[in-house]
């Protein structure tokens, strides 16, 4: 073979090697196999080097140098690949991208309709300048009842209506806490708590969990949500209450809603009202959803009783305010046409996934 042919052969072997190492799936075994074939004892490189003796000294120097350099390059490339594998920096499986594999579908969670309703309520009220306030779910007798002008003998305080918590006792049988605690039965409990720390004018809503000892049915749960609205200032009247309610319900139901107040009784408001809105299904004409009444009963409301202001530390007759309390479940039931309140806390994913 002439020196030209030998040079070409060495260069072709190198090209062939480079093409092959690009294609193989790098592993210890595959690299060992490649090394054996290209630069091993029985490889063409070695036979070229062995046959140098047949060349002139000048040719031997040229070809010998080229062959040795190429052989060392090949060793170097194989060594580097081996180090990559050992250090784990090259993972063929990980680096391989198969663009034809279909994507993985992410499963997306759902808001419970109560959360949806609560968020909407908060949006409407905050846009009207109300603050969102909070209070404890375990409440003492003062805030849940006394401060709200609910007399000691009121039936709401009975074991049948309220979940009382057993008071902790010391070793000698005396009570550890001075207060009687219960699971709060209404968000109105936050009224005095908030007013004690804040002076009028104030506007708050209090969305939160309430608990009552109920025999549950399609409209009653032992654990449910209410939201309270409270506004206090020096010149607040029933007209403001009715206007605010109409604005809120129209925004919430995204349709024009009428509001009706009927006389009622709550110890913490004077006068007190039951609160109805025009049926959102028939617009007030009468249908199955409103039991042909044209109105839907939603909650209680009234002008804050002056005794409540006094309990909160305000002077009597200086301020006026209105308050209302609604059930979030009842609102959600009306909006989404849900016929059983027990579905909300049932944990049934088939229910939640519809929203
Ligand atoms: C109250 O709880 C008063 N605190 C409301 C109030 C606030 C009046 C401020 C005046 C001023 P009532 O017990 O009616 O009132 O409950 C209000 C609403 O809570 C009901 O209309 C209903 O929507 C909801 N609710 C009451 N009990 C349950 C229950 N067991 N399950 C589901 N929702 C309930």
From TrEMBL:
GO CC term, one of those recorded: cytoplasm
Cofactor binding description: Binds 2 magnesium ions per tetramer.
InterPro entries on file: aa-tRNA-synth_II, aa-tRNA-synth_II/BPL/LPL, Phe-tRNA-synth_IIc_asu, Phe-tRNA_ligase_II_N, Phe_tRNA_ligase_alpha1_bac, Phenylalanyl-tRNA_Synthase, tRNA-bd_arm
Cofactor(s) it depends on: Mg(2+)
Single biological process term from Gene Ontology: phenylalanyl-tRNA aminoacylation
GO molecular function ontology, one term from the record: magnesium ion binding
Main localization category: cytoplasm
Residues involved in Mg(2+) binding: 270
Domain Aminoacyl-transfer RNA synthetases class-II family profile: 117-333
The UniProt record lists the keyword Acetylation: no
Top-rank taxon, per record: Bacteria
Keywords for the protein's UniProt record, in alphabetical order: Aminoacyl-tRNA synthetase, ATP-binding, Cytoplasm, Ligase, Magnesium, Metal-binding, Nucleotide-binding, Protein biosynthesis
Enzyme type, top EC level: ligase
EC number: 6.1.1.20
Catalytic activity: tRNA(Phe) + L-phenylalanine + ATP = L-phenylalanyl-tRNA(Phe) + AMP + diphosphate + H(+)
HAMAP family: Phe_tRNA_synth_alpha1
Similarity field: Belongs to the class-II aminoacyl-tRNA synthetase family. Phe-tRNA synthetase alpha subunit type 1 subfamily.
Record note on quaternary structure: Tetramer of two alpha and two beta subunits.
Protein name (record): Phenylalanine--tRNA ligase alpha subunit
The organism of origin for this protein: Candidatus Magasanikbacteria bacterium GW2011_GWE2_42_7
